[in-house]
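Morning!

As promised:
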Amino acid sequence: MTFAYKIPECQTSPSDFSTMGGLSHVYFAQTWFDRMIAHVIAGLPNEACGLFAGTGEQVETLYALTNADPTPQSYLVEPREHFQAFKDSREKGQELLGCFHSHVRSQAYPSMTDVRQAAYPDWAYVIVSLQEEVSVVRAFRIVDEQIREISILVKDISVEDTGSHVR
Amino acid sequence: MQEATVAVEVQLPAQLREFVDGQTVIEGTGVTVGEVLRDIVGRYPALEEGLGLKGDDIPKYVNIYLDDEDIRYLDKFETSVSNGSQVVIMPAVAGG
Ligand SMILES: [Zn+2]
């Protein structure tokens, strides 16, 4: 089952990354993107979360994981699943590229909590807002409490469907 | 049986490396995970705040793994280490 979503145009120009380095785009296969949306909708009324791995800017594995702090305004990727995803991605020659979580009643923009807790400056932080009927998805880098939006590209390519076994 | 003090490798996340002269893996000695970490923090005191290690509890937003298992599911900081054990520290992925 797939759900409707929209990805607003990224508001950051590439030059905003001149001092940050690292990812300025993130590419998803349609399969992974659909699975991410389905996972966060399944997590309602609470936030839901997961991780993704790949090489470069290409997401090659999506991990739909358990929210160990499940409320409508908090998430915590279950620590054992976090480690399993880390190990699994390394075994595949990939690395963790980022995480995703939902906002149940707010925009697809990092909250103060998100900014305070952002411990991975190289990662893409994908936020799926479920406050309206059509999900809105945006991605950000969060470096030294500074937020920069990055582009999301969804490609209709086939992927080896191996990501979810961690769960 | 007396448990022996052993040297254990501790893998640190990128953002804590500034506290340990840029190292990614650092060796600590002790009988338990807690002792190994105290040994390292003794040598690099700035790391204590970076890790958020204050009391006896594992900070909510720091995950500490011994040989692939979260020490919260073992004996927490009292978990025994053995020769060749590997400790991995990762900040939790969390927010709101
Ligand atoms: Zn959030």
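Chain A has a mean pLDDT of 91.

Hope this helps with the figure draft.
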